[in-house]
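The authors assume throughout that readers already know how a fold can be written as discrete tokens. Each protein is reduced to its one-letter sequence and a matching series of backbone shape codes. I therefore recommend that a typical entry be quoted early in the introduction. For illustration, here is how one protein appears when written out as sequence plus structure tokens:
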Amino acid sequence: MKDAFKTKAKDAARDFNLETAMRLIKPTLLRQPIVARVFNTLPPRLRTSAAIRIATFSDQVYISVLLSNLDGFKDERLVSLLGKFTDDGWNASSDDWAGGDVPNRDYRFTRRFTWEHDTRAIAYKKLVKEGAPIPTTFEISMNISAWVKEDSATCRIVTKEREEVIKKVDRFIVCD
């Protein structure tokens, strides 16, 4: 029994050390030249307000910007920014948020890039020594939140009422 515990404890410690090494190489994502290039496509005024973070659960860099007080979704500031991400292999999606008083839309652009590792880093060497899988690509996710002026002449939130019938089936266990 003691041998089984020692084996399990040794495996758990090894896994923890590998997870720690992975956490240590993640900040190198921000040193990737492509991340700086993508960030620098933003106008200087937006760069100061942009948020950058690294996902703890995956190999992803998030860049978020907020454009507010737009005349509409065809505002020149928004259209020129979207134009920088609508080509070159970026995957695009958007969501409308009409729940509040001001129309807003989130645009998301994602793309995978090659992850160039610093092979001299201790964490990288540890992963190689243990034979751990080292990610070779990472994803950049650009999120642009566009908020239209409340008194915009071109955009407004329209309320439309509809009735929906929903049939729900509940399942539960009954024991005698």
The chain has one domain: 2-148. The chain has five helices and five strands. The first helix runs from residue 2 to 25.
